């Protein structure tokens, strides 16, 4: 019987890939965060830089979590869904308001600067209280469905709606109230009571809804001034930074035309 020997065959390991999906050394990121805690006595705004190795498919959200887990547990930032739905992780990334969970580090330079959204109340570091402002805006605009029938029969089959109209309503309903449009808005910087693109988008959404009892005269009472639709300077920043690509500028222009017509009446 022949003596059979088994020889080990070396297996070539895949080459390491950098954050751009190419073979080679991984990029070393330098993430500078504007740190400031208004609740902490003696806290002074300053930039703090963290360095870490980029991984394949890394988002800025993943990078921040790695920093908080391995380097600095005191770093404050918000997140909930990690899928671009809740809007909690909105921040200013290299000068542009956007969502950390939808931002791939491979699309950014190795030096990244992060700051909290302006305009909103600062909680600490990258965390801001957008909810407080959004609630106030919603209450002011009465951003809920005003039923034509105050006592609807919940046992009835839901009223039919034209599919095209339903799609138009759904398009505006995709707003996640992340605050990016308000943070980028020049008018909001000058007028603290300006309802912003997010507020005007909400009004446009309910104006489309055939189940809502309000008229253009009712909408004029809440947005027909300089803190509403006539305050917009049409800089289009809201349209440019919206992470959901909503037609904000189009809706503002549409509502302005309707409110002008209402004013002449």
List keywords for this structure.
265 residues, alpha+beta, 5-stranded mixed beta sheet, 9 helices
List the helices and strands and how they pair.
Elements: E1 28-35, E2 46-53, H1 60-70, E3 90-93, E4 96-99, E5 111-115, E6 121-124, E7 127-129, H2 130-141, H3 163-173, H4 180-183, H5 186-190, H6 196-208, H7 216-223, H8 237-241, H9 248-264
Parallel strand pairs: 1-5
Antiparallel strand pairs: 1-2, 3-4, 3-5, 6-7
Give an account of the 3D structure.
It is a single chain. The chain is elongated and about 65 Å long. Helix 7 packs across helix 9 (248-264). Helices cover 32% and strands 14% of the residues. The longest helix has 17 residues, at 248-264. It is an alpha+beta fold. The chain contains nine helices and seven strands; from the N terminus they run E-E-H-E-E-E-E-E-H-H-H-H-H-H-H-H. A five-stranded mixed β-sheet has the order 2-1-5-3-4. The protein has a two-stranded antiparallel sheet with strand order 6-7. Residues 1-15 have low confidence and may be disordered.
């Amino acid at each position: 019987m022949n003596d059979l020997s088994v020889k080990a065959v070396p297996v070539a390991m895949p080459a390491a890939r950098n954050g751009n999906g190419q073979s080679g050394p991984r990029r070393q990121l330098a993430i500078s965060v504007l740190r400031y805690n208004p609740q902490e006595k003696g806290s002074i705004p300053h930039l703090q830089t963290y360095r870490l190795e980029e991984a394949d498919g890394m988002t800025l959200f993943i990078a921040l979590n790695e920093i908080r887990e391995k380097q600095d547990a005191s770093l404050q930032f918000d997140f909930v869904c990690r899928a671009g739905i809740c809007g909690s992780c909105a921040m200013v990334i290299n000068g542009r308001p956007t969502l950390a969970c939808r931002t791939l580090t491979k699309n950014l330079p190795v030096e990244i600067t992060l700051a909290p959204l302006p305009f909103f109340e600062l909680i600490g570091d990258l965390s801001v209280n957008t909810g407080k402002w959004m609630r106030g805006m919603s209450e002011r605009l009465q951003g809920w469905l005003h039923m034509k029938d105050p006592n609807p029969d919940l046992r009835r089959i839901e009223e039919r709606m034209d599919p095209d109209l339903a799609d138009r309503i759904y398009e505006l309903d995709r707003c996640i109230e992340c605050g990016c449009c308000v943070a980028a808005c020049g008018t909001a910087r000058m007028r603290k009571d300006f309802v912003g693109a997010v507020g005007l988008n909400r009004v446009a959404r309910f104006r489309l809804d055939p189940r809502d009892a309000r008229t253009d005269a009712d909408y004029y009472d809440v947005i027909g001034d300089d803190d509403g639709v006539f305050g917009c300077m049409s800089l289009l920043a809201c349209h440019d930074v919206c992470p959901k690509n909503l037609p904000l500028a189009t809706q503002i222009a549409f509502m302005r035309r309707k409110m002008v017509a209402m004013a002449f009446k």
